[in-house]
Write a structure and sequence with these properties.
One of its GO terms (molecular function) is pigment binding. With 183 residues, the chain is an alpha+beta fold. It has 3 helices and 10 strands. An 8-stranded antiparallel beta barrel has the order 2-3-4-5-6-7-8-9.
């Protein structure tokens, strides 16, 4: 039982795939007056820090929709080999002042919670997301660049990179997500 509690405690850190010891999480500014309704819909993952749960995945998407209880349904999908893999979770605003600080929960098989901070978005073409957690002096961080178009212009990705750099979020860890031959 003790082992399970330890695993449950460190799993969120392990899922944040850029670990560091003795460093605090970066706390970039996030979108103010976050419009959840405008954020809903389908997003295509363009780049991200490597994460264990996406190993071998391509054509990765995230789809957000409003649930009856006011939380957001999170439906992530990808192709691994010749098979489609998906997971469903939920997200809720983790702030009362309109900041785009959400908490996402996936039950796999127990609740795994992670921050989901929207650092920048125009709601119609791109979003830059940051997540970082600290536990026992270890931080695990993840960044994502998502777009509404499956194959966006390079200028949009460059814009996202500039936002990450503005907040000193390291871009050298980003890896491209294959969005080709997804049909």
């Amino acid at each position: 039982m003790c082992f399970l509690i330890i695993i449950a405690s460190i799993l969120p850190i392990c899922l944040g795939q850029i670990p560091s010891i003795g460093h605090e999480c970066l706390t970039p500014e996030v979108v103010q007056n976050f419009n959840v309704a405008a954020y809903l819909g389908k997003w295509y993952e363009q780049e991200k820090y490597p994460v264990i749960f996406e190993i071998g995945g391509r054509c990765i998407t995230a789809e957000y929709s409003l649930k009856d209880d006011g939380t957001v349904r999170v439906f992530n999908k990808m192709i691994v080999g010749a098979r489609t893999s998906s997971i469903e979770g939920s997200a809720k605003l983790n702030s009362t002042n309109g900041e785009a600080k959400l908490e996402v929960t996936f039950n796999v098989p127990f609740a795994v919670r992670s921050p989901y901070w929207v650092v920048s978005t125009d709601y119609t073409s791109y979003t830059v997301v940051w997540a970082c957690q600290e536990l026992f002096g270890i931080t695990g961080s993840t960044a994502w660049i998502l777009t509404r178009e499956q194959n966006p212009p390079d200028s949009l990705i460059e814009k996202a990179y500039n936002i990450l750099k503005k907040y000193q979020i390291k871009t050298q860890f980003l890896t491209k997500t294959d969005q080709k031959n997804c049909s």
